[in-house]
């Protein structure tokens, strides 16, 4: 089984691409941090990412989803982010890297395909209750992602700004065996 990572800055279009991949019958594993943020916001916490334990909780959910994905069918899986993204988030937020995230980072190179699909930013970013980041901050965050993936030995395959259909087609071409 091949596990492919889609990464990039918030608002780049990763989730749109994974939605298209799922519609095309591919196995997709949703982004953990976004789900944690939505759950916390629904419970009354408007900014859960500010808590020092947020990255550990994200890494734990990513681990649990990766284990659950082992039972899913298909030769390819597409992950909307990975623990390396969580490392970039911890660095961006100034949060500690705890034992769960450390353990997941140690496993990352053996779990995921060596080439990461890096979704480039579009020219604008839409702020949402979950995504509260400026375009300038998103660019900085994108660089932190690229640096973290390079540090952990991954190759980066860029998916440039284009239509969602074209980006999805490129993701499929890049992950062909």
The number of E-state strands comes to 5
Give me the CATH architecture, please: 3-Layer(aba) Sandwich
Low-confidence stretches: none
Give the integer mean of the pLDDT values.
Answer: 94
Number of helices: 7
What's the CATH H-level superfamily name?
P-loop containing nucleotide triphosphate hydrolases
CATH-defined topology: Rossmann fold
How many distinct folded domains?
1
Order of helices and strands: EHEHHEHHEHEH
How would you explain this protein's 3D organization?
It is a single chain. The protein has seven helices and five strands, in the order βαβααβααβαβα. With 177 residues, the chain is of the alpha/beta class. The protein has a single domain (2-174), classed as 3-Layer(aba) Sandwich (Rossmann fold). Strands 2-3-1-4-5 form a five-stranded parallel sheet, sandwiched between helices. α6 links the parallel β4 (115-119) and β5. The model has no long low-confidence stretch (mean pLDDT 94).
The gist of it:
With about 180 residues, the chain is an alpha/beta fold. Helices cover about 50% and strands about 15% of the residues.
List keywords for this structure.
Rossmann fold; globular; alpha/beta; 177 residues; 7 helices; five-stranded parallel β-sheet
């Amino acid at each position: 089984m091949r596990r492919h990572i889609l990464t990039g800055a918030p608002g780049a279009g990763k989730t749109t691409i994974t939605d298209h991949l799922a519609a095309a019958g591919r196995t997709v594993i949703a982004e953990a941090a976004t789900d944690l943020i939505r759950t916390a916001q629904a419970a009354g916490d408007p900014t859960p990412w500010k808590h020092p334990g947020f990255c550990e909780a994200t890494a734990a959910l990513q681990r649990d989803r990766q284990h659950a994905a082992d039972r899913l069918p298909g030769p390819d899986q597409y992950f909307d982010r990975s623990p390396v993204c969580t490392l970039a988030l911890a660095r961006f937020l100034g949060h500690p890297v705890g034992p769960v995230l450390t353990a997941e980072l140690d496993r990352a190179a053996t779990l995921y395909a060596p080439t990461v699909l890096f979704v480039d930013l579009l020219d604008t970013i839409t702020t949402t209750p979950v995504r509260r980041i400026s375009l300038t901050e998103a660019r900085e965050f994108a660089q932190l992602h690229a640096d973290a993936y390079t540090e952990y030995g991954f190759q980066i395959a860029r998916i440039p700004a284009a239509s969602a259909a074209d980006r999805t087609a490129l993701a499929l071409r890049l992950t062909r065996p």
